[in-house]
Amino acid sequence: MSKFTDHLGRPIVAITGVGVVSSLGKGKDENWAKLTAGESGIHRIDRFSTDGLKTSVAGTVDFMELDTHSAPALSLALARTATREAVDQASIDGEKFPGPLFLAAPPVEMEWQHRFALDQEVDEGEGYGRLLAAARKGDHSDLYEMLQFNWIADTLEEEFGTDGLPVSLSTACASGTTAVQMGVEAIRRGETNAALCVGTDGSVTTESLIRFSLLSALTTQNEDPTKAAKPFSKDRDGFVMAEGAGALVLESLESATARGAEVLAIVRGCGEKADHFHRTRSSPDGSPVIAAVSLALEDAGVAVDEIDYINAHGTSTPENDRMEYNSLKAVFGDAIHTTPISSNKSMIGHTLTAAGAIEAVFSVLTLQNGLMPPTINYGNPDPDIPLDVVPDKAREATVRNVLSNSFGFGGQNACLVLSQPNG
Amino acid sequence: MAADKQPVLITGIGLLSSHGEGPQAHLDAMAGGKPANVNIERFAPYPVHALGEVDWSQQISRRDMRQMEGWQRIGTYAAGLALDDAGAKDNEELCGRMDMIIAAGGGERDVEVDASVMEAGRTANDREALLNERLSNDLRPTLFLAQLSNLLAGNISIVHKVTGSSRTFMGEEGAGISAIRTAFARVESGQSDIVLVGGAFNGEREDMLLLFELGHYLTKDELQPVWSREGHKAGFAQGSIGAFLVLESADHAKKRGAKAYARLNEVIGEHGRRTAGAGRARLNDAWNRMPDKDFDGVMSGATGAAPATAMEASWLRDGVPDLPVRAFGSLFGHGVEAQFPLGIALAALSVNKGEMPPPFEGAERPAAKPATAVLVTGVGHHRSEGLGVVTKLKDEGQAR
Cα–Cα 20 to 30 A to B300, which of A202, B82, B92, B347? Predict the structure, then answer.
């Protein structure tokens, strides 16, 4: 173990730049001020009509300026803004970024506005036959570009000049964490000295809201939007869909040190374990989550008593929060009752594909500022989840290591351990 | 870490396409005598390489089948074939620590619901109200799970219990290249002992045809072989394809006594716009990074789309004029995310057999010598370029 290698002889991975956009605002400063003040970014949806829908609240990002709104266009704008902030902070070449791009991006689909528009372009056939007739006739190359799965990554790659083939990935609600994990792995393999890891999601649309609603995953507590997300509370009833982006510049500690970059934090370990129980539910015994947490601690070479704070997945669904607690209890034992934990989702909602990246950024800010953001709306604690959830307002503490959890549909479980640079 | 690189062996292949399933069916298809299994009426004017009869129950229970749409079935089935082939199926311990990387697009739409909403939309006064009402009532709740990109991987975990790690890459042909590249790098560096990697594409989908016709990338009417699709015939024909590989370190394969088809030696992915010769320059760049350039043949993932395929043809003509090139899209169609994994699999079967298949069309030259090293190309129809190298086993492991 040298100054630049870890307990397993691998290159230590530093974070030298972070950027974030959420419903709370643009940039680290605004987000961190509001997040630590316990402010909610959740509001009533006015992007589209919610008449007749069970859920009418979300953490949409409505302040980005777009020529024409679409989920890919917003996701790109969010990613671009967060990435620019991260690259600027790292003082790294933002035109020719010296490493690959790992992008957690929402699965792109044609939207209803596009279908309706194409449907009107011709007057022959029905259904997709009609849309195909329209497609054959006109020039739709812009729409074609935007609907390619790799479009957001393509555009970021061109703008920031990342190396090689950019990876667009999806591990559902763990995607942002997977993007960081892939950057760490590439640096550990010695393939690159730097990696750009981004998670973005601007996909709140009528159909996406309805789809999650049909799976009974969303809260229906619409009265006061700011109180809708209540992780670990007894009366939680689902998550709040939200939008945002998080970006991190990863570098080998050796290369960051050599170029005199400020090291904000270290990605000390990653853990991952897939679940084969069910498409949306976790194994009842929690074994895959337990494995993901344990593997992250092992990979980081830290003991449970060295984790000073947990950035929870904490979606506010009845099942997730209970499962997360049970699994943490299995790994941490009684120490879990006194380990501070909070869910950013109580304030920014569930940013889905972006969540892991945004929460990694907030974890870095927690380490840097010695301040743990709160879990708001914790007026009615679930007695079956006895956790120190840092209720209502931020708490000061020395934080050496943060565990950040992400879990997703499809049996995805991934965890990061983020640490002080001099830990 | 570079000091102790592990040889990466291909110890399992799982294929499902319009030519049937399994290695032998695909070797037979390449050996000739069988016409492409193309359906030209169903989605006219778009020919598609359609699956024949598949006994899904060989790999997927009826209960799990109900939760999946076509692309997930194809992928889950082909993944099961690869695990079977590698002797890993039903080995709980091995699958429990096996890593998985999937190249996937998105799932099927409910085309009937979409059609009826579009029809109603033509006369609706308030389309937002229409969407709220119709989508809330007409969308099947479970359809969402058949659409999410990462749920092919999720289904493979559920059906085959592969649960080491699970990653899904999206992004057309490039996703397949990145998936193989990442799996290769993980095994080579020791980050994984064994990885299930591959992709699936359901070519028999109008919603996918629409996506590609928006860019005018599809060939129409009577089907020509890939290199012969010039002018108004340029374009690709969608092919239903599931292509999976089990990649394994030589040490790990040796320990469990697994035999291999071939060794995967190198995978390079490139990306960018294709303006002003940039695509060709990137292929040259990737070529220059190849440590060993002594090939006996090329397994080309050429799509037939313009201008990508003409660019690849000219690059191959200039760079490797004497090599037999086989554009397997002529036989199997274009599998988008699954295309590069299919190319690696077909190259592995060819070096394992020791020969390149006979030409798939007049433009391809016969092979003059045995196949011990095959270059695999993946030039995406619009973006992404990839090169892979598959070689015959020397002393890295036991050949099949």
Answer: B82
